[in-house]
Amino acid sequence: MPETLFTNISQLVTPAPGVQRGAAMGDLSVIPDAALLVSGGRVQWVGPRAEAPGMVQEHDLGGVAVVPGLVDPHTHSIWAGDRLADFEARVQGVPYEEILARGGGIRSSMRATGAASVNELVALARPRLHTLRASGATTIEVKSGYGLDFRAEVRMLEAVRRLRRELFVMPTLLIHVPPTEGRTDYVRAVCEELIPEVASSGLAETVDVFCEKEAFTVEETRQIFVAARANELDFKLHADQFHAIGGTELACELGALSVDHLEASGPAQIAALAASNTVATILPGVTLHLGLPAAPGRALIDAGAAVAVGTDLNPGSSPVFSVQLALALAVRLNRLTPAEALTACTVNAAAALGLGDRAALAPGQRADFLALHSADWRDLAYTLGANPVRDVWMDGRHV
Ligand code: NIG
Ligand code: FE
């Protein structure tokens, strides 16, 4: 791959590489009239245009702002069927948890997804993932979790593996809701059969659990995390979405990569996250779509936690197909500043996936970056309902 010098960049805006906590989340580097040198799919150099190396092929970006490619650390992009009837019921007052308790909600997505082939799942997920990428996501996490039955879980992860050839997707095994009968045996089989199978086949490197009154208990979550660790897998958690039942504290104690949702988190959960290396991932699309309280993004940052933002793209709680929209909503709903929101959607989201090689424009990082339509990067946090991202590069390639 030849060296290319990207020029005519009104502002090159980036956080420093690696996870950023607390007040450091607001520290961005903003270089006016910048240039970006890319070689072999990596960033070689960034700086003012006037100081750029000469004698290299140039690519004129037309006077717009450049930011790192965004990372979406939490999606359920693979599902079959739809939740349109749930949506209609919910907006007329039936709560999400009640729909789930009645056997609808996630369980209805499980029935449809469990009946689909790998080919069908790939065909359903592909356009969703391309839409996310066009919104700025150059790395996207994708969970299983609509399988219930283990063969269906494995089919979901095989679909993610197939999509890996065309997009940068990170697979996660999600243990989502227990069966209505035999949950003790189910958790045992997850720990003794499914997790070892997924680990040995390399289908996922991370295990996630939905820890909630209508899903798994804290004790069941602990068993699943212990099994993940014994199989050398990372783990993360859906916690405090409706009730703070102790999942966040457990995840921080055991060293989870991230705890996600946090709409019902209070001072104890905020303190646990701030005192740990676990990333606090907030999902403002859920607040918007389910009308839940907003996760305490502002309080988490003020307490010193590392906050990330994701879309949580899924049919039930967050039909948000844009990582840029998630960023923009975090500013309105969770009271992040635009600078903090960019950090939350770049290096901190990468850290939530255990990745330190991307999402900052600094030498040695992957050359994943976005050219906006605007000369001012803040349009990324400002725009609602249109796409401020003009062009996307992954590994130095225009996609
Ligand atoms: O992250 N809360 C649990 N899981 C998903 C929702 C999945 C669904 O409703 O289908 C979430 O919100
Ligand atoms: Fe989720």
Automatic annotation (TrEMBL):
Fe(3+) binds at H74, H76, H238, D312. GO terms for molecular function: imidazolonepropionase activity. The keyword S-adenosyl-L-methionine does not apply. Its EC number is 3.5.2.7. 4-imidazolone-5-propanoate binds at R83, Y146, H176, Q241, S317. It comes from Deinococcus rufus. It catalyses: 4-imidazolone-5-propanoate + H2O = N-formimidoyl-L-glutamate. Residues 66-397 form the Amidohydrolase-related domain. NCBIfam families: hutI. This is Imidazolonepropionase. The gene is hutI. Pathway: Amino-acid degradation; L-histidine degradation into L-glutamate; N-formimidoyl-L-glutamate from L-histidine: step 3/3. Keywords: Cytoplasm, Histidine metabolism, Hydrolase, Iron, Metal-binding, Zinc. Zn(2+) binds at H74, H76, H238, D312.
